[in-house]
Amino acid sequence: MAYIEFHDICKIYKMGEVEIDALKDVSFNIEKGELVCVLGPSGSGKTTCLNILGGMDDATSGKVTVEDREITALHGRDLIKYRRTDIGFVFQFYNLIQNLTALENVELAVQLCKDHLEPKDIMEKVGLGDRMDNFPSQLSGGEQQRVSIARAIAKKPKLLLCDEPTGALDYKTGKQILKLLEDTCRKEKMTVIIITHNTAIAPMADKVIRFKSGMVEEVIINENPVPIDDIEW
Amino acid sequence: MKNRIITNSIRNIFKSFPRFISLLVMSALGVFTFAGLQATAPDMISTLDVYLDSNNVYDVQVISDMGLTDDDLNAISELESVESTEGSKFKQIVALTGSNEHVISVHQLPENMNAIKLTSGTMPVADNEIIVEENLLTKEELAIGDSIVFEDEGFVKKEAIITGTVSSPLYYNNVKIEQNRGNTGVGTGIIAYYAYMPKEAFDMDVYTVAYITVNGAKEVETGSQVYESKIAKMTEELESIKDERQNARRDSIIKEANDEISENEAKADKELGDAKKELDDAKSELDESKTKLEDADKEITSNRDKLNSSKAQLDNAKAELDAGERSYNAQNEEFKKGEAEFEAALKSAGLTADGIAGALKEADNGIESLKKGIADIDARINSGVLPPEQVEQLKAQKKGLEAQLTDLQGKRTNLQKLSDTKTQIDSGRSELQAARAKLDSSKAEYEQGLAEYNSGVVSLESAQAEYDDGMKELEDGEKKYEDGLKEYTEKEADARDEIQNAKDELKDIKTPSWYINDRRDYLTYSDYLDDASSIANLSKVFPFLFFLVAILISLISMNRMVEDDRMEIGTLKSLGFSNGQIISKYVMFSLLATLIGAVGGAIAGLIVLPEMIFGIYKILFDIPGPELSPRWGTTLIGVAITVACVAGSGILTAYAVLKEKPASLMRPKAPRMGKRVLLERIPLFWNRLNFSGKITVRNLFRYKKRVFVTIAGIAGCTALILIGFGMKDSIVDIPSAQFDEIYNIDGMAFLNTDDKDDSVNDFILEKPEIVKTVSTAKVSADVSGSDVYFVVAENQEDLGEIVILSDSVTGERLSLEPGKVVITEKLARIKKLSVGDTIDVKDINNNTYSYPISGIAKNYFDHYIYLDDETFNEYSTYEPNLIYFTTNLDTTEEREQLSEELLKRDSILSVTYKETLIENADNMLQSLNSVVFILIILAAMLAFVVLYNLSNININERKRELATLKVLGFYNHEVDSYITRENVILTIIGIGGGLILGFFMTSAVVSTIEIEKARFMYRVLPQSFIFASLISVGFTLIVNFITHFNLKKINMIESLKSVE
Predict the structure, then answer these.
(1) Which among A85, A89, A111 has the least Cβ separation from residue B967?
(2) Are B41 and B609 in contact (CB under 8 A)?
């Protein structure tokens, strides 16, 4: 059994009388430790898919299991607990708490679970050892995203979900971030799922899932992922 | 093509409906309070104005202590300011109503002014008919047709029949609680009821009062400045003719009195003359009867002498008679003896007395015949013819005849002897019989004389008795006459004295005093205006605090809205819309919200608040109403302020935003920078904080504006609530404080000073329930327009035990100094007096007395001037009219029983207990208290809206942050606490600030609502701090609770959106 399994996930948004099928019978598997790229144009359902996996949204029908645990069956507190312990989330716009220093943002996440990494170590690891006491507004976009990643992985999540992590960043910084995610995946053996509309970075992934109009168009398994450093776009 | 800007604006309203509603509610609350409170006082006054004007109630009245004549009325009506004038009579009189005695103010049925309303029954027509206020029937359990008995003079009849009930515009204090229609110098000192009777019922020839309406006064509102100036002018004009009219009245009174005196003198002279004549007649009558009696006396004496002499005669006659009787008896004895001898001789002769003559005759006859026989014989012998034998025979026969003749002749001699004796006896008998008859006649004569004498004695005695009676009568008559004379002398002296007194008094006749009163002199009127001005003062402070808070909150709300719309504004701007078009959305939004809210609030406020507050004041005032009128001016001001502030703030913020370039607007506004706060430099504090604590502290410093507004909002509301409670605290315990701290009494008995009773104190003290008594006099007086009471200490120590006089500042006990007075705090404050100053007190006759002030005493209710009896005597003679007492009773029943017993004493007019006094005062303050309660509720409502609004802004502003936290796996309660912790801290700070602010503002606000006769306590009780805090905390909790659901609603997807 795969580490993550999507079984016939449908998601229908009801906007008044109009029903929008965001996801239609989505099924795929992700193995533990895989680096997965989810590709697709805007509105193809990739973010919805990630939201459901991250416990931020529920599916209309179908089943998602993570490590044999049916997360589509979780509700309320259990769902929060799942998010709290199992999921690390990296946002497109970093979503750092402006009022907390970089380190404190990490600590904020860390205080949520017992089994976690030492915030300072993780800050060193993401290369911000010397900017720990800076507030987000004092950091560049890339640095903020690093804090965001540090905040996500400090909880030692089972899954690291990244929604367009480089969407707001320039090429160079974006690449650095992708490198950090790749390293996290390869070195920490963490399952990392990156949503992007940048098809160019697909080669770095172990698995590429393509979405189109709410459906999985194709799942490509990349036997030999190319390190991000070797990819140019 | 429709204007899509408008479409957008309209949709925006639905999109931001909660914001819209909160703006609306806030404006509504602000304008509600402002317009409502501002309208209340004018509405109250116009209600009174309409009430008074519609009944044509006087503006000014002139009362003269010696009455007003038609001339006076004419003089008044000629004054320039007078619209019309009406003379009327009234009299305050003690009357028996059912089983109780009360003072009733009886008025003459009005002609045009002070129109009364018949509420049941019929108008009185006859001089023994009366209509009374309805309370009299209900409270005294009387019905139409029952009678009221007047116990004083002043009316034609001594009794009046109730024909109906009436409502008068001259009395509009509510008497549900205490039947008191004002003070009077009669009876209990309190007018209990009013009543009306026809003019004819009054036994007086002059008017008591002249009611005056002033030109143009009806057109202006009563109590207003214009009105007061008209009244002042009227008063001035009246003052100008006052002296002349007073003197005229005096002259006419003197003339009248002089006439009366002359009349009385003449009458007295006549009466005295009559009396004198009567006495003189009596005297001469007495003299006459005296002479008669003397004559009678003389006659009696002569009669007595006569009687005495006839008595002597009678006695002599009696002696003679007795001697006669004796000799008669002796003769009779002798005669009886002779007769018995005769009888015996007779008997021996065998004869009866009557036979003697026959026997004598027979003897004579026998002798004759014998002599004849002898003669015959002789003849025959001698004839010799005859033989001698025959002659011898004849001789023998002659011899025999001769013997017979001798015998017979012997016998005849004896018979003769007997016959002589018989004759002798018969003559003796007739002699005796004559003597007897004579004796008998003299006896009869004697007896008649005796009888005559006796009757003479009787008649003498009766004459004597008659004389004695006559004598006694005479003596009585003389005594009576003496008495009559004495009486006459006295009476004469009295009458002369009286006349002299009247003449003397005439010299002392004072000039009559005119009392020119306007409506303000009716206590209820001025109380009403005072209360209205309390409300007016309150409406000057309270709504502005409301506005301030509401506007502050609306401002931040609008600001937030514009900030939220940065992107849209940028887009529209880049699309080429003009600033005006873009702003129109916010203008429309805020205008709609505030206009709907403000107008709705204004309408509700204009109706609800005056209705409510007037309703509350109906506890005190019996006036129909209220007359609500739209107060466009103030309402417009309120609406304008709200709209200008809220819409203005929206426009200003929008303009500030519009100044930016579209490009920068389209870029997300840099989130507010996080930074270290000062507190972090204090490791001792900072290190102790847990993580969330640190976040909270930083957040608080991050959103300074919102934090400030929140604190200000909460502080403002808490302050408002605390002020409300503070007002309550300052008011509510005044009556009990008065009795707990100042008047240490359980009750008091009012005495009738007309009914002098020196032992009444002992009588009360003898009751086992009474612990202590203190006699004093409580006399009302006037200190430049304020009603004050003199309380006179008969014995300072005694009074001091029951009335605690302590310095208002230091609390030290004060003692009364001779010739000086101690006045109460509030009186000192409003009259700006301090120790060492003198206080001027006016008595009922407008005489002014000045007293140096030796102390200012703590006091809460009413104004008092304390002084000793000697100092008081200057003002008026000290006469105790009040006995304060303490009891050992606990229950109302016991107290009632005691007062029943006390009231049996004639000189005790009424008994009042502390509980009643407290209750009465409580009732009086209840109105204000209820108004305060409304304000507390309004403040609490505002507090709620403020907190809710701020919390919403807080959440909206940080939606993304909160969504992120959720994504990070914060439990709901952790997310809640992230926000609510801030709320709690802000609330705590806000409450703290509000309590301090409120505490300091309370005294300012309380001083605006303080009523004249009370000194409010200027305090905020600890529990009020607690209540005010609890209300704020309570609302924070409710808001937090609502926030919880709002937070739950926040979609995590928000976190994925780009920054808006």
Answers:
(1) A89
(2) no
- Angle of the B4-15 helix axis to the B579-617 helix axis, nearest 10: 40
Report the range of poorest mean pLDDT among B1-15, B134-148, B538-552. B1-15
Task: Write out residues 944-983 of B within 8 Å (CB-CB) of A.
Answer: 960-961, 963-972
Q: Closest Cα to residue B477, out of B292, B291, B285, B277?
A: B285
Please check whether residue B1056 is in contact with residue A57, taking contact to mean a CB–CB distance below 8 angstroms.
no
User: Distance between CA atoms of B897 and B892, rounded to whole angstroms?
Assistant: 9
Outline where DSSP puts E strands in B873-967: 882-887, 908-913
Domain count along chain A: 1
What integer is the mean pLDDT of B307-334? 85
What's the mean pLDDT in B884-891? 86
Phi/psi of residue B107, nearest 5 degrees: -110, 155
pTM over 0.90: no
* CB nearest A99 (choices: B674, B1052, B1055): B674
Rounded to whole angstroms, what are the CA distances from B278 to B286, B488, B858? Answer: 12, 11, 72
A-chain residues near B968 (CB < 8 A): 83-84, 89, 108-109, 112, 151
pLDDT, tens only, B307-316: 888 888 888 8
* Cβ atoms within 10 Å of B608's Cβ, excluding its own: 14
SS3 assignment, position A64 = strand
Residue B273 makes CB contacts below 8 A (sequence gap 6+) with none
**Does residue B512 have a cis bond before it (omega within 30 degrees)?**
no
Whole-number Å distance between alpha carbons of A143 and A148: 9
Taking only the tens place, the pLDDT of each residue in B436-476 is: 888 888 888 888 888 888 888 888 888 888 888 888 888 88
**ipTM of this complex prediction, to 2 decimal places:** 0.86
What is the pLDDT, as a whole number, of residue B1060?
42
Q: Which of A97, A104, A107 sits opposite B961 (nearest CB)?
A: A97
Per the CB < 8 Å rule, is B969 touching A81?
yes
Q: What is the CATH number of the domain that holds A197?
A: 3.40.50.300
Token pair of A33 as six digits: 């430790």
